[in-house]
Write a structure and sequence with these properties.
single chain; 232 residues; alpha+beta; 9 strands; 27% helix; 23% strand; globular
């Protein structure tokens, strides 16, 4: 298990630093959550999201005590990312005062592959805004409107991390070329960066940077992709 920096509630924290520490904590916990012998065997996205949120919040009490994890917390636009991370007490991060009601970063979770054949590209896009996909929601400002850094968690239920890395980049390339379309403008520099794979723990991660529209904190958002192999 990776060594996680823990800290006390304080002031003067840099926003990107605490967001990254939170994302790194989640990534390091994924194998322990998957392999927890007391975890009920579930495959549906909603059940997996709830399980993971409960596990993260429980283990953060000792290992990452400055943050609490909340399941499907509404944001200002009334959209709810699957998991959000907020401070356990009021703190100043950068120049902004964060209360227990203000997410530091958010997580959108997806199964790979999706159970529906008509939604196989849902990790990236769902086409319309009403049926938006994972990355698309961040680009539209439906998720992470107040964040510069957020994350997506992939539950790999079939195939390998390199396979999904290639597939997702293929879907983004198709959006750039117009082979498939949705409500966003896509650019080739939004493809996933090289994959870092930890085969011994069955996890992998990479990063991507995306332009976005709407009333967001910034014109771009950095997404960290955290994947865990769910099959034996």
């Amino acid at each position: 298990m990776a060594n996680i920096d823990i800290g006390k509630i304080t002031s003067g924290l840099v926003p990107d630093t605490i967001a990254l520490k939170t994302i790194n904590f989640v990534y390091a916990q994924l194998p322990a959550w998957r392999d927890d012998s007391s975890r009920p065997d579930e495959e549906t996205e909603k059940e997996l999201n709830l399980q993971l949120c409960k596990f993260l919040d429980s283990h953060a009490r000792n290992d990452f005590p400055m943050v609490q994890f909340v399941h499907e917390e509404y944001q200002s636009n009334r959209r709810s990312p699957d998991i959000s991370a907020s401070p356990v007490a009021q703190m100043t991060i950068g120049v902004k005062l964060y209360t227990i009601y203000d997410p530091i970063t958010v997580f959108e979770c997806k199964r790979l592959p999706t159970p529906s054949r008509g939604r196989e590209k849902e990790y990236v896009t769902g086409g319309t805004e009403d049926k938006s996909g994972g990355i698309q929601r961040f680009k539209l400002g439906l998720h992470g409107v107040d964040q510069n850094i957020a994350a997506m968690i992939g539950y790999l239920q079939k195939c390998s991390a390199p396979h999904w890395h290639n597939e997702i980049n293929k879907w983004i390339t198709e959006l750039c070329s117009g082979i498939i379309t949705d409500t966003c403008n896509w650019n080739l520099n939004e493809t996933l960066e090289p994959l870092e794979e930890d085969t011994s723990n069955g996890i992998a991660k990479c990063r991507s940077v995306h332009s976005r529209t709407g009333s967001n904190r910034s014109d771009t958002i950095v997404l960290h992709h955290l994947w865990v192999t769910m099959y034996k």
